[in-house]
Structure formats: C-alpha cells, structure tokens
Amino acid sequence: PDRFSSAPSGQQDALTTRVTAARMMQPGVYRLTLQDGAEWEFSEGVPNSYRPPREGSEITIDRAALGSFLMSFDSQRAVRVRRIR
Questions:
Q1: Is the Cα torsion angle 76, 24, 35, 85 positive or negative in sign?
Q2: What is the pLDDT of residue 8?
C-alpha cells in the first residue's frame, strides 16, 4: 500500500520557512537563503511585475512532479526552484 505514496518515507511534501537573504542573479532569477542555511534558486525567470521575497519573507516550497519543486510567496503564481546547497 505504501509503494504509491507521493514522497519517500522521511521526506516532506512541503516546507514553510523564512528567507534570511535574497539576491538577484540575473533579471528575473533570484537566489534565496533560508533559515536553515539552504540556498534555493529560481529555475525560470519571472516577469518584472513579480514581487520577489525579501529578507524576513515567509515562503512555502512544495514538492512537484518528477522531483522538481515549486515556491509560493505572497499569493503570487508558484515559481519552479532548485536547491543549490
């Protein structure tokens, strides 16, 4: 019965945390440092109208299809992200 669960045992489907640092790597692509020291980077560029997270912002990272991740922030559309470290 457990072979079809969405996440391997011991792994979370979602993480809600705060941003401790955010920097723009190129237009529309940001790298975020989280409370636990992990760094995540946008895998795709966002439009100029997107309000990126800043230091102190609360974000949610959800596990998506095929091992990818989506970050949600401030009721905006989710952005595909990848863990850097």
A1: positive
A2: 53
CA–CA separation, 38 vs 81, rounded Å? Answer: 12
Neighbours of 32 (CB within 10 A): 26
Residue with tokens 């440092």: 33
Q: Which CATH number fits domain 2-83: 1.10.12, 2.40.50, 2.60.40, 1.20.1260?
A: 2.40.50
What are the residues whose beta carbons fall under 8 Å from the beta carbon of 26, sequence distance 6 or more?
Answer: 45
What would the pLDDT profile of 50-69 be if each residue is shown by its tens digit?
999 999 999 999 999 999 99
d(CA 68, CA 42): 11
Domain boundaries, the chain: 2-83
Question: Which DSSP string corresponds to 19-40?
Answer: EEEEEEEETTEEEEEETTS-EE
